[in-house]
Design a protein that fits this description.
There is one protein chain. By secondary structure, the protein is α+β, with helices and mostly antiparallel strands. It is built from four helices and seven strands; from the N terminus they run ααβαββαββββ. The protein has a five-stranded mixed sheet, with helices on one face. It has a two-stranded antiparallel sheet with strand order 1-3. Helix 3 packs across helix 4. The longest helix is centred in the first third of the chain and has 63 residues.
Length: 218
């Protein structure tokens, strides 16, 4: 009986020890998650103030100064678009921190592809010292259903990578888009060195001769 009681006591202590360890681990993870959420909320809220001030200053220059030139208006318009985009990204971060990712929903809406692509092209030309020449073959009627902020981010990344990884100072880009039955193919072809062969298996929807593609459902 002494052996049985000793074994039972040891097993009981072991179960209690495991329970305490699991409880402390869960509490620690919850605390870390709360700290991360608080940090994200604080940073994003702090970012909203300078962005709002910059937007107001840009709006004052754009709409209340009669002496600015058309070229200055063009650049101020680009600044306004980027600040608005930054504001949208901050709001998305706040939404993601407030909601569980599994319940987060995209804002799907019809988007005219040209209305997104052309401003992004101008923005990319401004931020690089390279000479960028773009041939844009996008139908006027090309419309997709997507989240505007995420689609803009995707297009920006495609063009940014195309320019960044083209070693020549004279960058030639060819942007095309076409509507298929159930989806739309949007591609950015460049003259870069492409993706190393050992990494190609990790990338889908890509033409390894230098054409980066994205498929958007309609």
């Amino acid at each position: 009986m002494a052996g049985i009681l000793s074994t039972s006591a040891i097993l009981s202590l072991l179960v209690i020890g495991v329970f305490i360890y699991l409880f402390r681990t869960i509490v620690r993870q919850k605390t870390e998650e709360e700290l991360k959420t608080d940090f994200t909320n604080n940073v994003t809220h702090e970012l909203k103030t300078p962005v709002a001030v910059a937007l107001s200053a840009n709006d004052a220059l754009l709409n209340y100064d009669d002496k600015i030139t058309e070229k200055q208006k063009k650049y101020l318009g680009i600044i306004e678009d980027q600040l608005a985009r930054l504001t949208g990204m901050i709001e998305q971060i706040l939404s993601l921190s407030a909601e569980n990712r599994s319940t987060f929903k995209l804002n799907i809406q019809p988007i005219h592809v040209k209305e997104i692509v052309y401003p992004v092209i101008e923005q990319q030309k401004l931020k690089t010292k390279k000479q960028v020449n773009v041939i844009c073959d996008l139908p006027d009627h090309l419309v997709i259903k997507a989240d505007k902020a995420h689609f803009t981010h995707m297009v920006t990344n495609l063009l940014d990578n195309a320019i960044k990884y083209t070693e020549k100072e004279n960058v030639q880009l060819h942007i095309t888009g076409k509507q298929e039955k159930d989806y739309t193919i949007f591609s950015v072809a460049d003259q870069g060195k492409g993706i190393p062969e050992e990494h190609q298996k990790n990338v889908s929807l890509i033409n390894f001769t230098g054409c980066r593609k994205a498929i958007c459902t309609t």
